[in-house]
Amino acid sequence: MSRLVTRLIVAAVAVAVAVPAFADVTLLNVSYDVMRDFYKDYNPAFQKHYQDKFKEKATIQMSHGASSKQARSVIDGLEADVVTMNQHNDIDAIADKAKLLPPDWAKRLPDNSAPFTSLQVLIVKKGNPKGIKDWNDLARPGVQVIFPNPKTSGNGRYTFLAAWGYALRQPGGNEQKAADFEASILKNVPVLEAGGRGATTTFMQRGIGDVLVTFENEAEMIAREFGRGNFDVVYPSVSIEAEPPVALVDKVVDKKGTRKAAQEYLSWLWSPEAQDIAAQNYLRPRDKAVFAKHASQFPNVKLFGINDFGGWQAAQAKYFADGGVYDKIAASVAKR
User: Fold this and answer.
1) CA–CA separation, 272 and 290 (whole Å)
2) Residue 176, C-beta contacts closer than 8 angstroms, at least 6 positions apart
3) Which among 10, 115, 78 is positioned nearest to 251, based on CA atoms?
4) Could you read off the pLDDT of 99-133 as tens digits, one per residue?
5) More confident residue, 336 or 167
6) Helices (H) and strands (E) in the chain, counts
7) Radius of gyration in angstroms for the set of CA atoms belonging to the chain, rounded to a whole number
8) How confident is the model at residue 23, as a pLDDT?
9) CB-hemisphere CA count at 13 Å for 119?
């Protein structure tokens, strides 16, 4: 080999090393059932943003299921770079039991790490044949109610607390009357699915039940999948504000070297582009300008929040822990 050829090869290798390669990164987002449609729209938009900003390709893998079951999977070893759940308690459990992120994780992003909100609504068959207008109609004899199990699903817990809060706000309302009201509703539940999407399938595809209680944004998914003329959405007189939180899983991203991409994936949720995607999926955006743009699709509903129950940890301990209020009510209904 001549000296000239050798120099050319060395030079070519040097150039190849000097040119920065486009790095690829893969993130796993462990999320809950009802967010499938939002992230189906958000992920391609984020990938374009990430490519434009960092000149790197990001691949997003999704895992969906009932929120609390998903949290349990992460605790048991599912290596999520980010978790996007429907209640803070599920991420608190990951921090407490698996020590994968710090206890104050919610303070790391705006709005207590919840980029948008939703609320519980009532979905009924077209024409509302049972005349369901508010929470009290769910306790009427002859009305079948579908919602997921509060023991396994954040959607179910929001539903339980929404009905409880409604009962407390009635004239003469107190905790005993709220418990009796919950028992009357539970008596009308023919089947408790593990998660929100299962409850939707039971109501829309299996034709079981007169009313489905779920998140407002789930109604849009139902419209897309089953047609807008097949059901009505009933906004109750009062409901609970759902704040679905997001968090980076520190020990996983540091192990995989994906912290930069995971942080960008979550923080971009507050961008005007992402907030608009949220609004298009009937999630109520935090960005006031984006909310104003879509205000006509979000009826004004009187809301209370989880802080009215002392926060998620207090609510979990009182209502949903083993032997708690929900278990006692469910046991009393089972004996009837």
Assistant:
1) 7
2) none
3) 78
4) 999 999 999 999 999 999 999 999 999 999 999 99
5) 167
6) 15, 11
7) 23
8) 63
9) 23
Distance CA 132, CA 145 (A): 11
Helix (H, G, I), strand (E, B), or coil: what is residue 25?
strand
* Per-residue pLDDT reduced to its tens digit, 9-65: 444 444 333 444 446 999 999 998 889 889 999 999 999 999 999 999 999 999 998
Task: Give the CA diameter of the chain.
Answer: 99
Q: Which residue has the tokens 């609320």?
A: 119
Of 167, 271, 157, 267, nearest in space to 214 by CA: 157
Q: Please report the DSSP string for 243-307 in residue order.
A: ---EEE-HHHHHHHT-HHHHHHHHHGGGSHHHHHHHHHTT-EES-HHHHHHTGGGS---EEE-GG
List the structure tokens of 246.
């997001």
Q: Which amino acid is at 63?
A: S
Instruction: Indicate the DSSP class of residue 210.
Output: S
% of the chain residues with pLDDT over 90: 80
Beta strand 24-31 pairing with 57-63: parallel
**Of 229, 233, 207, 230, which is closest to residue 219 (Cα–Cα)?**
233
Q: Which two tokens stand for residue 69?
A: 């079951």
Residue 203's pLDDT is: 94
| Contact indicator for 70, 89 with CB cutoff of 8 Å | no
Residue 332 structure tokens: 């009393």
Backbone angles phi, psi at 300, to 5 degrees: -80, 120
